[in-house]
Amino acid sequence: MVYSRYMGARVKRKEDPRLITGTATYVDDFHPPSLLHAAILRSPYAHARIRGIDTTAAERHPGVVAVYTGAQLQKIYGPMPLAGGEGGAGSEQGKIVVWPVEPEEVRHVGQAVAVVVAEDPYIARDALDLINVDYEPLPVIADFREAVKDGAPRVYDWIPNNIAFTWTRQAGDVDRALAEADVVIHQELSNQRVASVSMEPRGVLAVPGLAGDLTVYTSTQNPHSVRTQLATALNMAEIDLRVVAPEVGGGFGAKISCYPEDILIAALARVLKRPVKWIETRSENMATTHHGRAQSGEFWVAARKDGTVTAIRMRLLADLGAYPRDPGVPTLTGLLMSGVYRFQNVDLTIQGVYTNTMATGAYRGAGRPEAAYYLERLMDLVADELGLDPAEVRRRNFIPPEAFPYKTPTGPTYDTGDYAKALDKALAAADYAGLRAEQERLRQQGRYIGIGISTFTEICGFGPYESANVRVEPTGQVTVATGVSPHGQGSETTFAQIVADELGVSLDDIVVVHGDTARTPQGIGTMGSRSLAVGGTALYRAVQEVRAKAIRIAAHLLEAAPEDIELRDGKFAVKGAPGRAKTLAEIARAAYSGSLPEDIEPGLESLDFFRPPSTTFPFGADVAVVEVDPETGVISLRRYVAVDDCGRVISPLLVEGQVHGGLTQGIAQALWEQVVYDESGQLITGTLMDYPVPVAEWLPSYETHRTETLTPLNPLGAKGIGELATIGSAPCVVNAVMDALSPFGIRHLDMPLTPERVWSAIRAAKARH
User: What's the per-residue H, E or C state across 30-68?
Assistant: First the structure.
């Protein structure tokens, strides 16, 4: 495969006209006749037994159609489908039952205890205040570090020390490596809990059909999975259930799978036989859409005097919240604890821990940013301890290009990589030597400039499969139906670029359909940077089948051999015969005319399911430059240089957009964002007045560059880009700040590096000296 007219070109996004003109349709834009609105009463307690609920006054409120408690709703739906595997529904974890509306015992603030359905959303909300709930408060454990200690309150009575699972991975001889090391670094490191804060909160609209069928519009990344989970909970045949993800205003992993409200609203619509809608408020979003990160642990690193790292030991705790929504995320941290480095001795233990807080799950990067943060901080600490340049320490430990495919001691096999090339390009773009000279000069003036580096990889392109259907219509237009469900990634554009080059049509003649289980083949959805590497490959394979058949039909029409047909100037033409050619529209008319020879079946369509042989591993190298004001602790991000390698680039413009967004979210975790619960399990950061998200003026103009190292695992050579920038940016910025603070003897500070935290550290350091 080679680049042609569209693939690799900077083309405008096909999605943008409707998005920027306000004609796009989100869940809350649907207003079917006889629409009802739901409002949900949520627990103010982090842990309590429900002794009784009086809904009498709410039921009498004008405009209220129905009020339901959890006990009443158990008759019309099943419990939430919970994640399996480690920390999921196996062994003792299998006893965990979570209902969409809790009938007996709430385990986090915001858990639903009743629902009001009314003719108007404001009436429904007002009626919530008329419901009286008798709670019996129970002991609370909100800090996962405390939750594992003997005697701590239990989230579930039958799970000792609140430990959901223990994941381990050992390779080599870590004890010997630590004993023989020239230097051993021991450091506690944390990844604070953060919120996804998508521009559009979650929302659900369920519309019952006349034949017992049901259409559910929901803001999700994965409509096919949601349909399966809804069918299970509602005891419905999947053929009778249609799930539609219209425009989705951001997901970042938090909208991958089914939520309690999806089941609740669907069940209410079936019972009331009228459309029912629920739209999440921002406060609900902060409290009941799952959070990300939330890890803390101890690390030991063995190294030689020349900076060669020989071993890593990790003892990590991961906060799962109140139930196992996505317990596999912390294990991804363990799998990526080799990073881009070649050490062979590892001893890793991860424990998932239940607390009386909202469940955690995937958030842009999902386990991989945590691993990169730990490794990149440790590499800087090794460099600092040995008095070496952090860039040279990384270079000394890189896996060399000739070692690929490379089996890591943590488990995965990396496909391809050239880490030194990316680092060299980043250092050159930033003028690293010049920055170090400027840093020294400014320090003489009392200014504290810091330079941070991060080099990183990630695992993406997950299976188990993805689907695509390509159909050339009788008019010659092409319809693509994909199992992925883009929500800002720009897949409509990327997929159209592939089809346009392979079939010789314009981008305007291609329609990409997604996010509707009635119009698309069964798929896995959009997450894990998999859309192009897996979904795009399914599309590429399907379009090859269509192209091959179009060539056969063209050969028939042109009275030539198929091997003599080529795609030239947008037409299927006979080689060396100017003027003897057919357009795709002419071929399509023949395909559906019924006049084809017997050895060519009618139609021009192909369905493909691609099962990737393994996962892909994009990588990158970043350089950040900050300045710290020692009098206020304020950090100014002066420059950010990013070099990413995502394999073959189909749409450069979209890659740049993904990098910009990813950098911003990683930088935000480093400097500002944190979800905070107090000891009683109350959410302190429940609004955007308390939870800061970055604005443009806080950030510099990013300097983005690329290298291109193809993967052999798919015919496109694509690896994935959606999460890569988030993975590298948080540690890069923290390393830069720590570099700026090194004259004060400050070795490490946990994220977020708020002005108060930095100022306090500087003040304490001055007092010590």
Answer: CCCCCCEEEEEEECCCCCEEEEEEECHHHHHCCCEEEEE
- Position 735 scores a pLDDT of 99
Assign 672 to helix, strand or coil.
coil
H or E element in which residue 486 lies: none
Is residue 46 predicted with pLDDT exceeding 50?
Answer: yes
Q: What gap in Å lies between CA 39 and CA 268, rounded to an integer?
A: 12
C-alpha–C-alpha distance, residues 84 and 735, integer Å: 36
Q: Taking a C-beta distance cutoff of 8 angstroms, is the pair 430, 638 a contact?
A: no
- What is the spatial distance between Cα 681 and Cα 683, in angstroms, rounded to a whole number? 6
**Banded pLDDT at 769 (limits 50, 70, 90):** confident
With H, G, I as helix, E, B as strand and everything else as coil, classify residue 608.
strand
Residue 399 DSSP label: P
Measuring CA to CA, which residue among 385, 283, 300 is closest to residue 348? Answer: 300
Helix (H, G, I), strand (E, B) or coil at 101: coil
Token pair of 368 as six digits: 């991989």
Site of tokens 């050969």: 555
Q: C-alpha 213: how far from its chain's center? A: 32
- Which residues, in sequence order, are CB contacts of 565 under 8 Å at separation 6+? 551, 554, 555, 558, 572, 573, 574, 575
How many angstroms separate the first and last alpha carbons of the chain?
Answer: 63
What does the alpha-carbon distance between residue 438 and residue 130 come to, in Å, rounded to a whole number? 65
pLDDT digits over 117-130, tens only? Answer: 999 999 999 999 99
pLDDT band at 91 (very low <50, low <70, confident <90, very high): low
Confidence at residue 258, expressed as pLDDT on a 0 to 100 scale:
96
Q: Is the pLDDT of residue 422 over 70?
A: yes
The strand pair at 703-706 and 635-645 is best described as parallel
Portion of the chain with pLDDT greater than 90, in percent: 96
Q: DSSP characters for 673-726?
A: ----B-TT--BS--STTTS----GGGS---EEEE-----TTSTT-B---TTHHH
The DSSP call for residue 157 is T
pLDDT at residue 87 tops 50: no
Cβ neighbours for 63, distance < 8 A, ≥ 6 positions apart: 118, 119, 120, 123
Residue 62: what pLDDT?
98
110: left (phi over 0), alpha (psi -120 to 50) or beta: left
Strand 565-568 to 571-574 pairing: antiparallel
pLDDT tens per residue across span 279-310: 999 999 999 999 999 999 999 999 999 999 99
Q: Is 471 helix (H, G, I), strand (E, B) or coil?
A: strand
Helix (H, G, I), strand (E, B) or coil at 351: strand
SS3 content of the chain, % helix, strand, coil (to 5): 35, 25, 40
Tell me which amino acid residue 368 is.
R
- Check residues 578 and 50 and name the one with the higher pLDDT: 50
CA distance 215 to 235: 15
Determine the pLDDT at residue 747.
Answer: 96
- Residue 113: CB atoms within 10 Å: 23
The β-bridge relationship of strands 309-321 and 345-354 is parallel
Q: Residue 90: what pLDDT?
A: 46
Report d(CA 523, CA 530) in Å as an integer: 12
Closest CA to 371 of 425, 312, 421: 312
Please name the residues in contact with 387: beta carbons below 8 A apart, sequence gap of 6 or more.
none
Instruction: State the DSSP code for 133.
Output: E
CB contact set of 77 (below 8 Å; sequence gap of 6+): 100, 233, 234, 263, 264, 267
DSSP single-letter state for residue 647: B
- Residue 6, judged by CB atoms within 10 A of its CB (0-12, 13-18, 19+), counts as buried
Spatial separation of the C-alpha atoms in residues 520 and 512, rounded to whole Å:
10
Q: What is the DSSP letter of 209?
A: -
